[in-house]
Amino acid sequence: MQLAQINIAEMLAPIDDPIMKDFVDNLDRINELAEQSQGFVWRLKEEEGNATAITIFDNLFLIINMSVWENIETLFDFVYKTAHADILKRKKEWFHKMPKMHMAFWYIENGHIPTPDEAKERLYYLQEHGETPYAFSFKNKFTIEDAVNFRK
Prior knowledge:
By secondary structure, the protein is α+β, with helices and mostly antiparallel strands. Helices cover 34% and strands 18% of the residues. It has helices at residues 21-36, 72-81, 84-88, 116-129, 144-149; strands at 2-10, 40-43, 62-69, 103-108.
């Protein structure tokens, strides 16, 4: 099995606003870094190479990031031990503080490509029920066995 993840962020301004320029200017570089990282499997993207125009929520200022990784360790390494961490430290420049959990992880069968609706459901489940093997974050690193044996 592999690890799927969704994270969302609410932009301070439209994607083409000058406030968002530095974020947008770094998207391709960070996405390429992800794709070259150990453990990377897949990420949601459009023809432009990113997912900023994909809307799955009523709020048009919410952007989505989805990806699949071999395991939670390789995702953690990408998020916190690469240039991605430098961008993450700057998130207040571009995004509102999210009042609810804004990321969720879950295990999927090898070869399965998660849909945005599937990811949205996992995120909502986590927001409503807290961390379980069905939907979790880095705080509770549930195992594949935990997920397989979990009953909603």
